[in-house]
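Lab notebook, bench 4. We co-purified these components, and the gel suggests they stay together. Before we commit to crystallization screens, I want a quick structural picture of the whole thing.
Request: model the full complex, all chains together.
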Amino acid sequence: MPAPSRRTVLLLVTVLGTLAAAPALAQSNERPLQKAVIQVSDNDVQKWNLALNNARNVQDDLGGPEATDLEIVVYGPGIGMLKSDSPVAKRVADALKAGVKVVACENTMKTQKLSYPDMLPDIGYVTAGVVELMKRQKQGYAYIRP
Amino acid sequence: MPAPSRRTVLLLVTVLGTLAAAPALAQSNERPLQKAVIQVSDNDVQKWNLALNNARNVQDDLGGPEATDLEIVVYGPGIGMLKSDSPVAKRVADALKAGVKVVACENTMKTQKLSYPDMLPDIGYVTAGVVELMKRQKQGYAYIRP
Amino acid sequence: MPAPSRRTVLLLVTVLGTLAAAPALAQSNERPLQKAVIQVSDNDVQKWNLALNNARNVQDDLGGPEATDLEIVVYGPGIGMLKSDSPVAKRVADALKAGVKVVACENTMKTQKLSYPDMLPDIGYVTAGVVELMKRQKQGYAYIRP
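Here is the predicted assembly.
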């Protein structure tokens, strides 16, 4: 029985290489990091505290900042959470120090005539909070709306 | 060195064709359209306006109706948003004109003794709002709950 | 023209077998069961009833307990729903009988100084409600937040 020709073997290697890539593509959302995007869109201090508790509980339960990728997206009536006079300013600073991303919606800021100096230090900004929530879900982040 | 036989080549072509299809199947949720389903289940005009703002912001930011597939699902205490006397009737009409789908939950309508003539024109209907939300998420829509 | 050698055929069979497995892996979230995780985190009896209605409507519409996998996750200010004096105790019992999982967040219980005897019978427990919500979404459950 003759061995398969070199060209046949070459083709099979190409085929097997592509095969190995296919499940990898399909599983690209399953990175080791536990990822969640947390929405804050209510004008409600209790909700702000709950969102911050949620982030802390996830880090405590899942192995700290190294094992988690958390982002709090603040928009609409929730924007007061990130103004410089926010009643949860200290807790937002703690969350940022713990590696939680906190981002404000610039569309909301425009509507409410807020500019960057009106906001807490070290937070991030996105053009549209709702688009950020869509983008993150597409990237495999769980959605949490406290 | 002999060339691979025709039958070997034929088999390889079949294999490569199937391989090309495998990642396509895996990525079937990643169509170019940016898709989101927006839930309205509160009896709260501010929430209704926020949901409509959200839809408009997504279209503005992501390239208009051609680039987005948005559906607002209204159920439970939110159903008043779609009654013919809705305080946001004009804005719902604008959203429909902009290509946003707006659907009412028939289970809720039954409970609240509402029939189709009681509702805004041109909206859609689903048997159960919550089932629609499940179906859309399975189809790769992001979930937004303003 | 010579037929392909046995070794070539064997390699092709291996390749085709792997190919058949690739889409299966990619679609592992699409099991026949319709799965949803329902969040209750408000101190609001109307929301508790809405969550229980949602679970019942999903079962009614999608073929009963055999066809659905539903879990209600209760945390934060929502925890009162699962205390033994809950105004919806009877409805929670009915949901459990209908095969809906109902779980309480132990982090919340600790904060509110609640222990197991304070809670409704037959419910389940998770360390952190928010982590459960992340886990379920990763497993392909739709997220519903009434």
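Residues 6-26 of chain A form the longest helix (21 residues). Worth comparing against the SEC data before the next meeting. Helices of chain A lie at 6-26, 45-62, 89-97, 106-111, 129-138.
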